[in-house]
Amino acid sequence: MKVLWLFAHPDRRSLSGSLMTEGLRTLDAHGHRHRISDLYAMKWNPVVDAADYAHDPADRLLVGEASERAYHRGHLSPDIRAEQEKLTWADTVIVQFPLWWYGMPALLKGWFDRVFVKGFAFGLTDPATGRPRRYGDGKLTGKRAMVITTAGARAATLGPRGVNGDLNDLLFPLQHGTLWYTGISVVPPLLIPSADRTTPTTYTTAATRLRDRLLTLPTTPPLPFRHQNGPDYDADLLLHPTPNQPEGPAAHYTAPPPPAHP
């Protein structure tokens, strides 16, 4: 594998930092290559603005148009181009972050906002049908990703009946609406629960789970998201009704996803 490890935690001495170190050591030991984007250490700028696109601030900023134009003309900010080069090189993306307020840290959200611009991460059209190529068919098709997240909550509370909601539902905007949207296949996430109560024993268990998931990542079946341009959606991109079809995010899987923490 050629892995881009996208890391968003402010302290490399944390549980998250220790797990990344263990993960990178595992990749090295088995002959995989990797590059790292440690967003806090890089002091990554998460804010989209006109300077990203060499855009005249006196003119109205239409982000989609300006970013696509800058991408094709080679005018994107150098920090954005550097991250796009890493992503182009990689065939696998690890997205690692602590689960803060049911989502990823703002710094990481800003990475996707600035790097996944139109023209680079999306914006293809099928010439035969005129339909946009997205949700399983896009600019980044062929790559795969895995989310690794630590959470203070106990595992059961991030399951289907837990008070915090099911983890796959919490990650749906990232896994489905960002990664799958651009064509990246997403394997089930790795949840490290009870992070604030980690002991040497539970750390050993977490590290073992991480190593196992990394080494089996190339052959792990991805989350069974539906393809936009398959038979499941009509011309208005609405699911065709079927008996007993679930509502909400669950409707967009062809089968129930496996639990994040078995």
From TrEMBL:
<feature type="region of interest" description="Disordered">
    <location>
        <begin position="217"/>
        <end position="262"/>
    </location>
</feature>
<keyword id="KW-0560">Oxidoreductase</keyword>
<protein>
    <submittedName>
        <fullName>NAD(P)H dehydrogenase</fullName>
    </submittedName>
</protein>
<comment type="similarity">
    <text>Belongs to the NAD(P)H dehydrogenase (quinone) family.</text>
</comment>
<feature type="domain" description="Flavodoxin-like fold">
    <location>
        <begin position="1"/>
        <end position="198"/>
    </location>
</feature>
<dbReference type="InterPro" id="IPR051545">
    <property type="entry name" value="NAD(P)H_dehydrogenase_qn"/>
</dbReference>
<dbReference type="InterPro" id="IPR003680">
    <property type="entry name" value="Flavodoxin_fold"/>
</dbReference>
<dbReference type="InterPro" id="IPR029039">
    <property type="entry name" value="Flavoprotein-like_sf"/>
</dbReference>
<dbReference type="Pfam" id="PF02525">
    <property type="entry name" value="Flavodoxin_2"/>
</dbReference>
